[in-house]
Amino acid sequence: MAADFKTAQPVEYYRRFLKEDVRPDGRELGEIRHTTLNIGSITTAEGSALVKLGNTTVICGIKAELCNPTAEEPKKGFVVPNVDLPPLCSPRFRPGPPSEQAQVVSQLMADIIENSGVVALEDLCIVEGKLCWVLYCDMMCLDYDGNVVDTCVISLLAALKNVLLPEVTVNEETGSPVTDVEKKLPLNIRKCPVATTFGVFDDHYLFTDPTNEEECLATGVLTVVTTEDNKICCMHKPGGTALSESRLQDCINRALTRAEEVRKLIDETINSVER
Amino acid sequence: MQRYYSVGSNMAATDETSALLRSFECEQNLLSRPDGSANVRQGDTSVLAAVYGPGEVKMSEEIIDKATLKVIFKPKIGLPGCAEKLQERLLRNTCESVVLAVLHPRSGVNIVLQVIQDSGSLLSCCINAACMALVDSAVPMKCLVSAVTCAVMEEGRIVLDPDSKQEKESSAVLTFAFDSRENNVVTCSTKGCYTPEKYQECLSACGAASRNISSFFRQAVERRMSKEL
């Protein structure tokens, strides 16, 4: 009966639950799904992490390559994020060129990396104007059940913290780079950005960590990315329900608390991984 | 075809204060083919917007209970890439939240935005242009939307409607779009790092400025209607 009602009247179905301050999956409005983190799952990558947020699963692998810095910025390396939403993860994605959603999330990741300054691009420089690292951060969604932005940010941060780069020296005579595979150094992570996404239902109910169903029914979403010094590095609200100042402040406060929890989780997991 | 031209004189920036907006100009109904068009100029930043619709929509994009909105964002130079996709999504969702799409089921509204000159506050200029073009095309809307960009300078000063030089020197750039009814935040997009306190400061500064823009929009429409009668 309940299943029929849900199929016929999804909005009304949700409304009934939210009236009682509970969501159909049993969570409270402010509750975030269980977060599971596995670091270093891909041995061939320089750094990797697998994150599960409820059913949503994202795996991030970071490959490092040597390249030439640009003439305009000879002291800077590159971080190139890419988010892949393959047809495997949800029926809404088709094979072929990246969907709009994938492009939007990729761009959002690039913005978050740049705004938060998680990796200083100067740290990636090896020889000024000659040689630098480029970090390809590929995030692949394996199961799309909403809130892919938060999951991607966690996987990206965890994978970056897991990166080990071999020491590179330049051969004086030939001028070619020589990598010392024995000596590996971790990347200097300057900031720890963590995203928290909120959904608005019926222009009134505010809930955290929306699932795919909730995202489809929501009248608006809001993503707040905060760093450990309690600063906001991205506030992304693409249209939808208009929110008042006090509600935005409420979201920021909740995002700060959530970010603290995620950082603790990442640190605990990193420490438990054997090198 | 008659063009309608309005200038926001009360908002012109002066040298001593940066809390004001740059000169704000709006020209409506300047293209003959689209159903609605507008050119919004904020200082030197200029965006041309055109609206086609409600009209036919591709079968695959058809939504049975409301109109499909599509935004095409054309940068001044080069081909649109990932960053433009994010802009398009932001603009589309902003317009979707003010257009009464349920009144035109199974139809499409196309909004084309062409950047003519970018000298700072481009996103807010795009949102304002899209809103004015929608008004000109007479697509039913529940309210207007007005956007304001502000920049937080290194020393903590807030500059409203920054030009590209100020944007480059700033530590953060925040863009807000407000609805004209309750002045709540419809859209928010930010660059750079800032504290929650600064965020609230920027929000209230932009909120106050957006009221000016809303009333300017109202004046522009009023002036136009009085000419038409």
From TrEMBL, chain A:
Q: Give GO terms: molecular function aspect only.
A: mRNA 3'-UTR AU-rich region binding
Q: Does the keyword Nucleus apply?
A: yes
The UniProt gene name for this protein comes to LOC118419563
**In which family does this protein belong, per the annotation?**
Belongs to the RNase PH family.
Keywords linked to the UniProt accession:
Cytoplasm, Exosome, Nucleus, RNA-binding, rRNA processing
What is the name listed in the Swiss-Prot or TrEMBL entry for this protein?
Ribosomal RNA-processing protein 43
List the source organism.
Branchiostoma floridae
Q: Which residues form the Exoribonuclease phosphorolytic domain?
A: 31-166, 193-256
Q: Which SUPFAM superfamilies match?
A: Ribonuclease PH domain 2-like (SSF55666), Ribosomal protein S5 domain 2-like (SSF54211)
- Pfam name, any one: RNase_PH
From TrEMBL, chain B:
A single GO BP: poly(A)-dependent snoRNA 3'-end processing
Q: Which SUPFAM superfamilies match?
A: Ribonuclease PH domain 2-like, Ribosomal protein S5 domain 2-like
According to the lineage, what is the superkingdom? Answer: Eukaryota
Q: Which CDD domains match?
A: RNase_PH_RRP46
List keywords of the entry alphabetically. Answer: Cytoplasm, DNA-binding, Exosome, Nucleus, Phosphoprotein, rRNA processing
Pfam families hit by this protein: RNase_PH (PF01138), RNase_PH_C (PF03725)
- MF terms per GO, please? DNA binding; RNA binding
- Residue ranges occupied by any Exoribonuclease phosphorolytic domain in the UniProt entry: 21-140, 143-204
Q: Which GO terms describe its cellular component?
A: cytoplasmic exosome (RNase complex); nuclear exosome (RNase complex); nucleolus
Compartment annotation: Cytoplasm; Nucleus, Nucleolus
Coiled coil start-end:
none
Similarity comment: family membership: Belongs to the RNase PH family.
Q: How does it assemble?
A: Homodimer. Component of the RNA exosome core complex (Exo-9), composed of EXOSC1, EXOSC2, EXOSC3, EXOSC4, EXOSC5, EXOSC6, EXOSC7, EXOSC8 and EXOSC9; within the complex interacts with EXOSC3, EXOSC8, and EXOSC9. The catalytically inactive RNA exosome core complex (Exo-9) associates with the catalytic subunit EXOSC10/RRP6. Exo-9 may associate with DIS3 to form the nucleolar exosome complex, or DIS3L to form the cytoplasmic exosome complex.
The protein, known as: Exosome complex component RRP46
Species assigned in the record: Branchiostoma floridae (Florida lancelet)
Gene name, per UniProt, is LOC118430967
